[in-house]
Amino acid sequence: MNGTSDVISDLAADGDEVDRLVRDLGPDGWAAPTPAPGWTVAHQIAHLAATFRMAGLAAADPAAFEALAGRLSPDFDANVDAALRQFLPGTGHDAGTGYDGGTGHDELLRRWRAERENAVKALGALPPDQPVPWLVRPIPAATLAAAGMMELFGHGQDVADALGVRRTHTDRLRHLVTFAVRTWDFGYQARRLPTPAQPFRFEITGPSGTPWVYGPEAATDRVRGSAVDFCLLVTRRRHPDDLDVRADGTEATRWLTIAQAYRGPAGEGRRAGQFAAGPR
Can you give the pLDDT at residue 279? Predict the structure, then answer.
């Protein structure tokens, strides 16, 4: 896999973990509401299928991806809805074919698996630093794979919360932690706030207990905590008050309230105490 093997194999493993959450669901499970307002488990998997479709296309056929990106609307939410309609049972190209209930969700599961496989194969065929076109600007293939892991973590958490499942995490999270540190300014950009001139120090502890450290040792502003909770923070799947993530310094403390590892609108996030005793 030309040097991308670690992140590519970990991307595949994370996809398999989310797959296990939904592979045996019946119609009621697919229709279960998730913490994202208006989104069921089926919406979450359809979104992941659409995201992996775009990643696979960007890696395998950059010209086709750029043509697709050129047709996107300036309205972020409209683009998300249009992408969902390509995969949700009974909508988009599936409209009128009877894809409601179990049969439709079997097809959604099949297509989600196919898009994952295509994306993993296409990204794994590239050198890690090969630029791949993406929605704002080209990014290295390995970075796009890490972004895919971020999508799997966040939307997989929504599915787990809907189903009442507690997830088990591994040090594969290091790819997501590194990605989130690199994109630490996205929260400022999403809110059109000035990004601090001085970088933060991040001191994160992996699930195995291994410390992962980023940023200047002398930094005044520091963020520290467990990798799982840090990833829940930057995907906005838990409120900062409910996480084992702490900040030193005024700006880092502020950052905890706006952190996000993705572009676009921040979304509603989660309320303090919403999952105080629930699964992660």
Answer: 60
225, β-bridge pairs: 204, 245
Domain CATH code at residue 118: 1.20.120.450
Q: Which residue has the tokens 């194999």?
A: 9
The tens digit of pLDDT for each residue in 12-31 reads 999 999 999 999 999 999 99
CA–chain centroid gap for 164, Å, is 20
Nearest C-alpha neighbor of 51 from the set 99, 59, 226: 59
Q: Which residues pair with 246 in a beta bridge?
A: 224
Summarised one tens digit per residue, pLDDT across range 4-14 is 459 999 999 99
- What does residue 206 show for φ and ψ, rounded to 5 degrees? -70, 165
Statement: residue 95 has pLDDT above 70? no
12 and 120 in a single domain? The answer is yes
| Separation CA 184–CA 195 (nearest Å) | 9
Single-letter code of the amino acid located at 97: T
CA 249 to chain centre: 28
Backbone torsions φ then ψ of 245, nearest 5 degrees? -135, 125
SS3 state of residue 60: helix
> How many angstroms separate the CA atoms of 109 and 192, rounded?
38
Give me the domain span that covers residue 63.
5-163
pTM for this one?
0.91
What mean pLDDT, rounded, does the chain reach? 91
